[in-house]
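Project outcomes to date are best conveyed with an example. Our students and postdoctoral researchers have been running inverse folding experiments weekly, and each run begins with a structure described purely in C-alpha cells. The record below, which covers 149 residues, was selected by the lab manager from last quarter's runs and is presented without edits.
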C-alpha cells in the first residue's frame, strides 16, 4: 500500500510544543544575564555599603556597621565584616550608563529565557499584553454605560 507524502510547510518548521523559547535563545538569555550581573552587583554594593556604614575612611560612627561591630566583634573583626569593610573602602561605582546598559541587558536576557512576546502584538489584541483591545482608559465613556457618582 502506498504511503501519503506530507507536503512541506513553506512558512517554516512547525511551532515548538508549548511555544517556549528555543535552547539557543535560552542560552543567549542566560549569557546576557551572566554578563550584566557583575555591573549590577557592583553598582548595588557601591550604594549599599556606604549607606550601612562601610566607608573609605573606615566604619562610620553611629552607623549600622558600627552597631554590628560593637555588638558582635568588639575590637577584633574578621571574616565577613572585614570583607565588607575592605569592599566599602575600595569599591568604585560603575558609570551610570554602564548600569543602565547592564539593566537593559539583564531585562532582555530574562525575557529571552522566559520566552516573552516579541513586540509584534502577540501578547494581546492591541499589543499591550492585557489580552484585549481595550486598555481600560475609557471605561464607561461612549458605550451607553452611565457613569457612577
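After processing, the design step wrote out the following sequence:
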Amino acid at each position: 500500500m502506498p504511503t501519503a507524502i506530507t507536503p512541506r510547510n513553506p512558512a517554516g518548521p512547525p511551532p515548538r510544543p508549548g511555544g517556549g523559547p528555543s535552547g539557543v535563545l535560552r542560552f543567549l538569555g542566560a549569557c546576557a544575564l551572566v554578563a550584566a550581573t557583575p555591573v549590577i552587583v557592583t553598582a548595588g554594593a557601591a550604594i549599599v555599603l556606604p549607606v550601612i556604614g562601610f566607608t573609605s575612611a573606615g566604619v562610620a560612627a553611629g552607623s549600622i556597621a558600627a552597631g554590628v561591630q560593637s555588638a558582635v566583634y568588639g575590637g577584633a573583626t574578621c571574616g565577613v565584616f572585614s570583607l565588607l569593610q575592605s569592599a566599602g573602602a575600595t569599591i568604585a561605582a560603575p558609570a551610570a550608563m554602564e548600569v543602565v546598559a547592564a539593566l537593559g541587558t539583564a531585562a532582555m536576557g530574562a525575557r529571552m529565557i522566559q520566552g516573552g512576546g516579541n513586540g509584534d502584538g502577540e501578547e494581546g489584541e492591541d499589543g499591550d499584553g492585557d489580552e484585549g483591545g481595550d486598555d481600560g482608559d475609557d471605561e464607561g465613556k461612549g458605550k451607553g454605560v452611565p457613569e457612577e457618582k
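The chain is about 45% helix and 5% strand. Strands lie at 54-55, 58-59. The training component of this project remains on track.
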